[in-house]
Amino acid sequence: MARVAIVTGGSRGIGASISKALQEAGYHVAANYAGNDAAAEAFTSETGIKTYKWSVADYDACAEGVRKVEAELGPVDVLINNAGITRDAMFHKMTPAQWKEVIDTNLSGVFNMTHPVWGGMRDRKFGRIITISSINGQKGQAGQANYSAAKAGDIGLTRALAQEGARAGITVNVIAPGYIGTEMVRAIDERVLAERIIPQIPVGRLGEPEEIARCAVFLASDDAGFITGSTISANGGQYFT
Ligand code: NDP
Predict the structure, then answer these.
(1) Atom 34 in ligand 1: residue holding the nearest Cα
(2) For the domain bounded by 4-179+213-230, which CATH number is listed?
(3) Alpha-carbon dihedral of residues 1, 225, 240, 206, nearest 10 degrees?
(4) Catalytic residues, which ones?
(5) Ligand 1 in contact with 144 (CB < 6 A)?
(6) What's the CA-to-centroid distance between 34 and ligand 1, angstroms?
(7) Is the minimum distance from the CB of 233 to ligand 1 under 6 angstroms?
(8) Is the ipTM of this complex over 0.95?
(9) Is 17 in the pocket of ligand 1 (CB under 6 A)?
(10) Which segments of 25-107 does DSSP mark as H helices, in order?
């Protein structure tokens, strides 16, 4: 039987690549998104992958969303916590609202999605939780205190859950991408990209969303059963932990 995967933020950017790669690998995929209905509709007509709208920042909406996906596709075997936002500001200018929005989505969102699938995975003795953190959660980034804190928190949460899930056949891992050529990054001024960002990346280019998707498909597979609590850095050599 095909395994069922939920990809949060799964209809655009890195998440869309992960949804498509999992579908190609034979999974039944549910792609969650927050509000961009046009992108979600275009994604479904291109791929046939069903999209589900709720905010990962809302625990009750996540629990209800998981129930709906499970009723339609079956028990969730794989959860990809990919949804994420930025609200950048230097710390002295950062508002409590900018802090809270990013923590609520990028860190609490991982709790909100993982908690409703955890019990079922424990009962069935199989599960894969993969969270997309960031190089900036590993090294910290000026102007992103909120984002760096949330993404570092994702790594701590993963390491704790890896220990709790191990005996129940659940692996819990992080992928920490560097700069990936999604809309978000391509929107950066071309000169800034060419003169300031790409020179920091030893391989001399941005990463492709598909390169993150292939890591996710591997971590979701049976072949990755002995890997848990790990962080895979996919950053072109920009930072080593
Ligand atoms: P995009 O901005 O291209 O896409 C973000 C996706 O997340 C969208 O589908 C969006 O939904 C969804 N989303 C945002 N907020 C919520 C929410 N509250 N509930 C549910 N879905 C939500 O982002 P990227 O593809 O660039 O990034 C994906 C992940 O990778 C993020 O976690 C990001 O932090 C991380 N990352 C990205 C890097 C990069 O260089 N791009 C580098 C390192 C990490 P909608 O379509 O409805 O807006």
Answers:
(1) 84
(2) 3.40.50.720
(3) -10
(4) 147
(5) no
(6) 10
(7) no
(8) yes
(9) no
(10) 37-47, 59-73, 96-106
